[in-house]
């Protein structure tokens, strides 16, 4: 069964099934293509990239690689996927090469760029650090990586930097108090929205759950903690709480709307 699905503006569709396989169908032109190795602008019916003969993803699938998460990045016309070993797979435009370093790949098929010698991601892979989630920040032309240990990394202009290397309040919390990052989102025109393991929400380097003037403050003090976040709007994010309430938080107006209680 289908676990996740992404659509591109070029009429390309890629889906992740429950067995960790990627499927694609639709228009095979421009970027991202269908990942089948050619760019002929024709339309194709559904094909399983994880079993397609000669496809790098099929070779990896036979060795136990399973895709766990899937992303389409509209702003750089690219497909990204993270496998069960915490490695990043990629195909699409050449924008990613400018962010991650000077390397060349066949952008018409899924390629495991975590294993490329000239890619800065290999530094993480060699340290045994596994990727949990990856996001592209169009505002600074960088990648934000959340690892499985609750740390976050920034890659920009081929350079890798941990959030703990920054002189920030959140970095201090991570280093001194054992705080871990659970999730991160990047809404348009705003700083990162970060969820930590204590159920607190950060925007940039400010913990809004501890801000007396913020709409989340009273809820947090009464024991209502955030357990997941998602964004769909430049000014808002959706949060699920430990009391099974779904709330919409308006960043601009500092207002909460109950969506499900």
Detail the topology: elements first, then pairings.
Blueprint: E1 2-7, E2 12-17, E3 22-27, E4 43-48, H1 56-61, E5 67-73, E6 78-83, E7 88-92, H2 95-100, E8 111-112, H3 121-126, E9 131-137, E10 142-147, E11 152-156, E12 159-162, H4 169-177, E13 181-185, E14 193-196, E15 201-203, E16 206-207, H5 217-221, E17 226-231, E18 236-241, E19 246-250, E20 255-260
Antiparallel strand pairs: 1-2, 2-3, 3-4, 5-6, 6-7, 7-8, 9-10, 10-11, 11-12, 13-14, 14-15, 15-16, 17-18, 18-19, 19-20
Multimerization state: single chain
Q: Main beta sheet: strand number and arrangement?
A: 4 strands, antiparallel
- Stretches with pLDDT under 50, minimum 5 residues: none
Number of strands: 20
Proportion of beta-strand residues = 35-45%
The secondary structure category is mainly beta
Which word captures the global form? Answer: globular
Distance between the termini: 30 Å
- As laid out across the biggest beta sheet, the strand order is 1-2-3-4
**Overall pLDDT, averaged?**
89
Q: Helical region count?
A: 5
Helix and strand run: EEEEHEEEHEHEEEEHEEEEHEEEE
Radius of gyration: 19 Å
**What percent of the residues sit in helical stretches (DSSP H or I)?**
10-25%
């Amino acid at each position: 069964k289908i676990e996740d699905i992404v659509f591109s503006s070029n009429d390309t569709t890629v889906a992740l099934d429950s067995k960790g396989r990627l499927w694609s169908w639709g228009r095979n032109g421009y970027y991202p293509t269908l990942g089948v190795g050619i760019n002929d602008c024709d339309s194709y019916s559904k094909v399983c990239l994880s079993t397609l003969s000669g496809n790098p993803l099929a070779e990896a699938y036979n060795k136990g690689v399973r895709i766990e998460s899937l992303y389409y990045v509209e702003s750089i016309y690219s497909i990204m996927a993270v496998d069960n070993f915490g490695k990043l797979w990629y195909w699409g435009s050449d924008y990613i090469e400018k962010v991650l370093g000077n390397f060349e790949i066949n952008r018409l098929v899924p390629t495991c760029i975590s294993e490329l010698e000239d890619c800065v991601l290999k530094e993480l892979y060699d340290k045994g650090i596994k990727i949990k989630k990856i996001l592209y920040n169009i505002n600074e032309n960088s990648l934000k990586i959340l690892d499985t240990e609750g740390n976050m990394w920034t890659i920009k202009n081929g350079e890798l930097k941990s959030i703990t290397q920054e002189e920030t309040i959140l970095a201090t919390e991570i280093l001194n108090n054992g705080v871990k990052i659970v999730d991160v989102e990047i809404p348009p025109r705003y700083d990162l929205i970060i969820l930590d393991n204590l159920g607190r929400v950060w925007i940039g380097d400010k913990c809004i759950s501890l801000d007396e003037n913020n709409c989340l403050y009273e809820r947090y003090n009464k024991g209502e903690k955030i357990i997941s976040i998602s964004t769909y709007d430049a000014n808002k994010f959706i949060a699920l709480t430990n009391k099974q309430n779904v709330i919409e938080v308006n960043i601009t107006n500092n207002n909460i709307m109950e969506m499900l209680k």
